[in-house]
Amino acid sequence: VIGSRQWILARRPRGPVQAGDFALREEAVFEPGEGEAVAATRWLSFEPAMRGWLDDAPDRWGRTAGVAAPGYGVTVDVGEVVKGPAVAEVVASRRPDLHPGDLVRGLFGWREHVSLGTGAGFQRLDPSVPVPVALGVLGGTGLTAYMGIVSVGSAVAGETVVVSGAAGAVGSVAGQIARIRGCRVIGIAGGAEKRRWLLEACRFDEVVDYKAEDVAVRLRQLCPDSIDVYFDNVGGPALEAAIANMAVHGRIVLCGLVSSYDSARDGTSPGGPGNLFHLIARRVSMQGYLLSDYADRLPEAAAWLRDREAAGELAHREDIAEGFEQAPAAFLRLFSGANQGKQLLRL
Amino acid sequence: VIGSRQWILARRPRGPVQAGDFALREEAVFEPGEGEAVAATRWLSFEPAMRGWLDDAPDRWGRTAGVAAPGYGVTVDVGEVVKGPAVAEVVASRRPDLHPGDLVRGLFGWREHVSLGTGAGFQRLDPSVPVPVALGVLGGTGLTAYMGIVSVGSAVAGETVVVSGAAGAVGSVAGQIARIRGCRVIGIAGGAEKRRWLLEACRFDEVVDYKAEDVAVRLRQLCPDSIDVYFDNVGGPALEAAIANMAVHGRIVLCGLVSSYDSARDGTSPGGPGNLFHLIARRVSMQGYLLSDYADRLPEAAAWLRDREAAGELAHREDIAEGFEQAPAAFLRLFSGANQGKQLLRL
């Protein structure tokens, strides 16, 4: 029996999530029982959608927001270990299919050790792929980007694709998939460093720096009324500016709405885009999607991403925090825009 | 040569359109030249989209709003005759294909007489169908409703369909098409009289009276998280309440956004729905459409509507104003919700 730490939800966030919404707790780790294994967490992975899992406030329709909000059904109770994807290494095992040294991935949560009983959900990792790559461009991140551009947006060669949150984990891959498919790709990201990385490493055609430029004015210049696919990770003013410039029969792919995740719940929502009439005049579709609906296309997508990544055609980067105690801080980076690429934490 | 009146656009509306935005003008009507006919207007037909035709204010993206707004490319200049659909009867003809007494339909505008030269666009009316029916349930109104429910929304038996602006010309037909296809149909309309008509004549399953009830609360009671198709004519709070209750893989059909037609242009837009994250969590699509994209399905739709109307299965009513001088007042009824059914004017 050794000591093991966990991050629990100390209180529900009010408005922007804060470090103080979480608290460290220490518990004993037991030896595995018959048919069980114990694994030590090596990596945590962070996604914006996890913000919704922390929420349980009744919304104005009298419903628990967590049910329908970006958490997509997953909720974390106050006092419970924070849920989240992780990679762990088996350290002791009394089940025949797991051996010390095996790397497994699952929704293990923010804990230093995880018990893997018969009912535990996990997948094995391919030991030939670096864990940050497996969790990022070849994991749910890259697969989500692929489905959004290919299956939902149906972006084809010659079309103009605009991606918001372009320097983020999903956005940067989405833009590159579109570029490889022969599209003209315009990214929206914040800051000169991200802009340069998207232009030079990801080879986007244009990048709008929303911290230095007026997104509405710049999109009007770069792609007036000619956005065929808008891949949205942020919502807010960027979505409104994109709607104003959609081409006839354009498609808006709603992958995330980071800008609204806090405000939608604390009653301060500034409202959504006020120009939806463009969707009628231009016959535009707006489609929300989740990766889980595309199970039948996962093998095709995974193979495509693996081949392109192996060939060096997909730039990617991971923003790796160090130390279990940094988990809340690493998570908060997603919402301040501080992270550069896939946000991970190494224990 | 006789005197003939026309309604011209006297000034561009600022905010809500007003009677004072229009002015009467008198002009001479000439005998038809060689290859021409002159027709006397018998009916005017009014649609909410015509509001957009009156607008030319640059929006915040520096573009002429009329280009992209609900006018869909049609604009009316100040001093020009107001454009709009009409039915006219040929009174004098020097073209071999038109004879006095022939009834023709076209975008003739608000004028007492129209000259039909070689380039004039018009269609003949079937003399066996009453003009109000031809302009309403069997015209663009009914065809728009059909395409929205069948082609865009793909509503099938057993699904729940919610229609806003349900007592309007398009909405009432849309709901009935869904009902005939075996859907459960819930309407949103204003006032006890409209509610009764929708329940008794149109046989909707439920009707929410937005003037007497909280739409969000009522939808939550009637169809919690279970709207398969939302057919929207109004936008605004009803759209937000519908989004909150969409079923997984639900479809939002954007036919009109009457609530935003004025405010979107005068800079007072209250913003759109603030709960778009539901579109992701529930994988909902929102699709704007125009009838003009569905030319290949028009014969099928027209035949379906004609058969159902002839069999007495489609309730419809027309709100008929009298007298050319009432044209602006009749048009304004669309935006106050005063009209009961298809708004027409008989000269």
Structure in words:
The structure is a homodimer of 347-residue chains. The first copy, chain A, has 347 residues and is of the alpha/beta class. The first copy, chain A, contains twelve helices and 15 strands. Chain A has helices at residues 50-53, 65-68, 131-135, 140-152, 169-180, 192-200, 215-222, 236-243, 258-261, 277-281, 298-310, 327-336; strands spanning 2-9, 22-29, 37-45, 86-93, 103-106, 113-116, 123-124, 160-164, 184-189, 206-209, 227-232, 246-254, 285-288, 318-322, 342-346. In chain A, strands 3, 4, 5, 6, 7, 14 and 15 form a seven-stranded mixed beta sheet that branches. In chain A, strands 10-9-8-11-12-13 form a six-stranded parallel beta sheet, with helices on both faces. A two-stranded antiparallel sheet of chain A has the order 1-2. In chain A, β9, α6 and β10 (206-209) form a beta-alpha-beta unit. In chain A, α4 (140-152) packs across α5 (169-180). Chain A is globular. The first copy, chain A, starts with a strand and ends with a strand. The model of chain A is unreliable at 58-71 and 264-268 (pLDDT under 50). The interface between A and B is large, with 52 and 52 residues. β13 (285-288) of chain A pairs antiparallel with β13 (285-288) of chain B.
